[in-house]
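Chain A, query sequence.
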Amino acid sequence: MRLSTVTLLTLAAFVAQDSSTEASPIPNQATNALPHASESSQAANPVEMMALTPSLAVSIPEMMESPSFSSTEFSPKDLTSVSITNVLDQTWLAELVKIGNGEHQSQIKSPISVAQLSPSSALNYEFSQTITLLNTLLIVATLVPSITILFFWLVRRLIVKEIVAQAQKKLNHIDNLEAQLKASKQRYQQLIKELEFQITTTQESINFLNREAKVSKSSIEQVETLKSQFILRLQGMISEVQDLKEQALKELEEKTRETKQSILPETSVSLNGLSPSSPSTESLPKQSINSSIVQTTKPSQSSESMIADDYLKKGEAFLLEGQFNQALNCLGQAIKANSQLGEAWFKKATILGRLQRYNEALIAYEKYLNLYPDKYEGWYNRGNILVRLQRYNEAIESYDKAIKIKPNDYESWHNRGAILKKFKRFDEALESYNKALEISPDKYEILHNRGNVLAKLQRYEEAIASYQQAIKLNPNKWELWSNQANALSALERYEEALEALEKALDLKPNHFELLKTQGNLLGKLNRNSEALDAYQKAIQIKPDSYETCFQYGENLVKLKHYAEAITLYEQAINLKPDSAASWRSKGMCLEKLEQYSEALASYDAALSCQSDDAETWRYRGSLLSKLKQYPEAISSLGKAISIQKELRTAKNPAIS
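Chain A, predicted structure.
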């Protein structure tokens, strides 16, 4: 770039700075063009004049007046040129030129020491040096714009890098805080669960003691009842023996009297007593006729009940043999003969339930309950049929009526708890299971289901205790071992969980869910090679499981097998295309393999599935920073920070 001499002079005039502590003023055109010599000497050496002023004995030396110049010798234009020349001669740039030409070399004897100057002079000197540096930079920036642009680009780049680094540092700090909060929360929940477990254990002990006391009391009452019954029975037997004794004596007396009479001589029998017209001979045919009439009329009065009972017995026989259709025919005949035969309705409903003809079975149970509304068996079985028909509210009502009639029926309590658990009314379900256990504490099914409800309530210690009691009663049930492993895993007791799961696998070796859970637990324990084997077996059994493919890929990432992990993530994406986690994990693997464009595309796909995923925004920002796309990186990292703040505010509304 070429600049004219006038431009250079103008710039130099604007940035000129005298090297002395005080710049010389530009002479006014209204006065003489140049100052007198006395004025210039006074201005040049103020220090000496201040030293001579206090001495009154010394006379002021005479000053030689410099010849004055006529103003007519210079035109205004010439005066202006002379003034600019004088000013430029006094700038640092002119001095540098003179030094370069070899002038004033004799005047440069030693560098000026700042320490030799007065404080004000040193301050002015430093300020003058700073101004000189700034003037130099300004001139360079004006003369060479490319260097200026490069300088500002470098400064901007450094600033952006610093912003990105601060954003990442802040995100890491937020992650650490969240981890600490999570650990504190888990510890707090664990302490609460332990306290609740202790309270529950104590309460169970108290309930057990109360039950034992009730049992002992009832046993004593039963013994007293048996004693009183035995005494009454004994008294009855004594009275019966006494009656038999008296009756035997009477019979003995009668026989003795008859024997005496038979010994007496018999008189002759008159022929008139054997005549056809005698009353004895006439009465015999009538009695036989009357007896035959009675025998023919009695069956006609009770024939219907006898026929219904016969059909009922035949139906029961067919039912025992498993011939349900024949049994239904016989029971139908029994009901046709006697519609008030409740037992026939009950048997018919039972058979219809076994044949999965639930609507007909429900009608039969309602007919039975119309006849016998106080029979708890009818209400209980009706509740079971309503469960099959998925009419759960009516089933609960039916179980409640059965419990009201027979409160100590553990099956009604158990089934009621199962329905309440299905409706996620876990507290009520737990109460029903506890009632069932009070009645029948040795039923492993109740203990198992009670453990499941406790696990849903996140009371894992109590759930484990319930599972252990059930396992003692039935150790060959693989579901018990599996659920115990899940509860132990929730408490992060992975070693114990793995042992329980292996027990389940011994009983059910090729179960898909068990193998998948085994892989997850081995991954938690960093036994990644063994976890791979478990996942491979699980995928062979069920290759269309999204969760298994994703977890398999996560385990491969731990082993740094990124290419294989990408294959598993793609398989998971095919099974579930809107999985943001799969897209994000695939992007991370691609970034590890330095396939940055594909990684960025994966992050964008993850954000299209879930736009409020802070982790994806963070990884995207880091990748863009690595690609030196700083504005977009700052935007992504800022988005991640804002989402995390919103999540924290949502979790803790008091902290905002």
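Residues 15-74, 103-115, 263-303 have pLDDT under 50 and may be disordered. Residues 227-258 form one domain.
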